[in-house]
Specification:
- By secondary structure, this protein is α+β, with helices and mostly antiparallel strands.
- The chain has four helices and 25 strands.
- Strands 2-9-8-4-5 form a five-stranded mixed β-sheet, with helices on one face. Strands 12, 13, 16, 17 and 18 form a five-stranded antiparallel β-sheet that branches. The protein has a four-stranded antiparallel β-sheet with strand order 1-3-7-6, with no helix packed on it.
- The radius of gyration is 38 Å and the shape is elongated.
- The model is unreliable at about 1-25, about 25-40, about 345-360 and about 405-424 (pLDDT under 50).
- This is Cytokine receptor-like factor 1.
- It comes from Canis lupus dingo.
- Keywords: Disulfide bond, Glycoprotein, Immunoglobulin domain, Phosphoprotein, Receptor, Repeat, Secreted, Signal.
- It is found in: Secreted.
């Protein structure tokens, strides 16, 4: 077989007995003696190699009982028997193995390289570690939710996978004095993260970095310098409510509560809203909400279900000049706009009679006015009362006109007019 490691089929192949010791070899330590009476030694023991390296190993039998020789020995790697041509007998008691261009270890605890007697019993085992040294961690980001704690996460390296167990340690210290500290609560928001729960100082910068180590080396990230007050965030705004605005068919009202975690601290907050229709995955974001806890969405489709989310960005905490960190989005809240009372094509509406004054210019002027109003007062209280009055007047006028035209269609109007006029 090709030099190096067996293919993926090794996992599903039947493994020679006994199977359990093979699985535990590199966890409990390589045995120096197997289940039989024979004893042997593998050299080198538990080697660590770079991917692409070659391995020259030997299995030397002690000859107990007398007559045991290397002729009947064979090798397995992760439970799969290696091809005979990869081995050769050096002398009566020693079997050599040559593997070239090794791939990364299948398990971070090491691959199982085992020397077997003719009857399949284990004579000796070794853990084979093949991988890469860690790369420099990068992209460190940190945030605090109560100005007493700090959570950080990072990216392990450009390629990430080292095929070996790699330990990551988050270190931190006060910038100008103090000793190095090590974070202890790992994997809090993902595989490469750590949480510092308390005992952090305010109004002074910290230096934060990540160290990565494994059997082949170590690496250290660049140092991130930050002040706790500059990286404060919150939980998403709670109690988000979305409701209709009376009978206005193209609007929804959104209200929420300021995050309670920072209510006792001096800070400002700005909010963002995003919304989408029920059958879409595309969100539309409203940026100009400012520090209000309510907003009216306008220009929506009548009779449509919308999902709405809100998030918060605290800033200016105790005079911090940083922009702040956005919270996660709140859970989606659903609401629907009223159905339009204006009939669409084929809805049975009576068309205006010939000679009736056109309302086109008036409607265009009104549409331009409303467009300006929605643009300049999107999520503020400016002129919303006037806007509501205009919309209510429009809907009422349109509905009244449709009813009048439906009661007196053009044919009946002509008949009535004929009864009161002299015959010609």
């Amino acid at each position: 077989m090709p030099a190096g490691r067996p293919g993926p089929a090794a996992q599903s192949a039947r493994r020679p007995p006994p199977p359990l010791p093979l699985l535990l070899l590199c966890v409990l330590g390589a045995p120096r003696a197997g289940s039989g009476a024979h004893t042997a030694v593998i050299s080198p023991q538990d080697p660590t190699l770079l991917i692409g390296s070659s391995l020259q190993a030997t299995c030397s039998v002690h000859g107990d009982p007398p007559g045991t020789t290397a002729e009947g020995l064979y090798w397995t790697l992760n439970g799969r028997r290696l091809a005979p041509e990869l081995s050769r007998v050096l002398n009566a008691s020693t079997l050599a193995l040559a593997l070239a261009n090794l791939n990364g270890s299948r398990q971070q605890s090491g691959d199982n390289l085992v020397c077997h007697a003719r009857d399949g019993s284990i004579l000796a085992g070794s853990c084979l570690y093949v991988g890469l040294p860690p790369e420099k961690p990068f992209n460190i980001s940190c945030w605090s939710k109560n100005m007493k704690d700090l959570t950080c996460r990072w990216t392990p390296g450009a390629h990430g996978e080292t095929f070996l167990h790699t330990n990551y340690s988050l270190k931190y210290k006060l910038r100008w004095y103090g000793q190095d500290n090590t974070c202890e609560e790992y994997h809090t928001v993902g595989p490469h993260s750590c949480h510092i729960p308390k005992d952090l100082a305010l109004f002074t910068p910290y230096e934060i970095w990540v160290e990565a180590t494994n059997r082949l080396g170590s690496a250290r990230s660049d140092v991130l310098t930050l002040d706790i007050l500059d990286v404060v965030t919150t939980d998403p705004p709670p109690d988000v409510h979305v409701s209709r605005v009376g009978g206005l068919e193209d609007q929804l009202s959104v209200r929420w509560v300021s995050p309670p975690a920072l209510k006792d601290f001096l800070f400002q907050a700005k909010y963002q809203i995003r919304y989408r229709v029920e059958d879409s995955v595309d969100w539309k974001v409203v940026d100009d909400v400012s520090n209000q806890t309510s907003c009216r969405l306008a220009g929506l489709k009548p009779g449509t279900v919308y999902f709405v989310q809100v998030r918060c960005n605290p800033f200016g905490i105790y005079g911090s000049k940083k922009a702040g960190i956005w919270s996660e989005w709140s859970h989606p809240t659903a609401a629907s706009t009223p159905r339009s009372e204006r009939p669409g094509p084929g809805g049975g509406a009576c068309e205006p009679r010939g000679g009736e004054p056109s309302s086109g210019p008036v409607r265009r002027e009104l549409k331009q006015f409303l467009g300006w109003l929605k643009k300049h007062a999107y999520c503020s209280n400016l002129s919303f009362r006037l806007y509501d009055q205009w919309r209510a007047w429009m809907q009422k006028t349109h509905k009244t006109r449709n009813q009048d035209e439906g009661i007196l269609p053009s044919g009946r109007r002509g008949t009535t007019r004929g009864k009161g006029s002299p015959a010609r």
